[in-house]
Amino acid sequence: MRERIILSATELFGEKEFHRVRTDDIAARAGVGKGSVYRQFGSKEELYAIVVIDGFARLQTEMRAALAEVSSLIERIKAVVTRTLCYFWKRRQFFALLNDPGALPRRQARRYLARRRGHTRLISELLAEGVAAGTIRSDLDLSLAAESLMGMIRGVNRYRDESVSLGDAVATVVSIFVAGCTRCESKHLASDARSGLAPLRAQTETCSTARASAKRVAIAHAPSETAGGR
Fold it and tell me: H/E element holding 115?
């Protein structure tokens, strides 16, 4: 019974905002009485917290298993993005909680934050391996970079158009993140890769081309001395 309730709640909380999900709806989908939901979880808030925390735990287990199957940096980054987007793809409303853990009961909020920190720590550790291998820039704050990746995933999933495919979303996030984090010398990371869900194109500009382009833009917009630049 408990697992049926959690499964039903997971589906409903993923489909609707928290305040629009009624306990009656959860009970009906699980095929149990409303009282059973309260006896098992105490409140809708407690159930919501358990659903999200349990989801993060399962996601991290899946992610570690996926990382163990690949070795190259780009494939490992792709595994992180793919697994995270796969989990939240049909649960877009869950991302609202990522910015507002205060919506949870205090005890559950602490558990949630611990799980979330574990997720970003896993990404930071992956990036640290890249720094040690000389492929990831050593000047980056890896915790901040990990949070940036989570932010990209959250934004792409929550605000995407319905016509966007999961494969295209993965390709976009990985391409932008890899382009920003890798060292200039790591040009092999810009080659095409294949996603298990859709073609993943990870083509990135070389650093010299990007810097030259940025310099041209800066010069074009700089005020001239005759126009009051003195």
Answer: helix 106-133
Q: How high does pLDDT run on average in the chain?
A: 77
**98 — pLDDT class (breaks 50, 70, 90):** low
3-state secondary structure of 42: coil
1 pLDDT band, cuts 50/70/90, is: confident
Residue 38 makes CB contacts below 8 A (sequence gap 6+) with 23
d(CA 37, CA 24): 9
Q: Is residue 20 part of a domain?
A: no
3-state secondary structure of 39: helix
Q: What is the CATH number of the domain that holds 198?
A: 1.10.357.10
Whether residue 196 is contained in a domain is answered as yes
Distance CA 105, CA 45 (A): 7
Residue 4 has pLDDT above 60, yes or no: yes
Count: domains in the chain: 1
Residue 159 counted as domain residue: yes
Is residue 7 assigned to a domain? no
What residues make up the domain containing 125? Answer: 71-227
Beta strand pairing call for 193-194 and 199-200: antiparallel
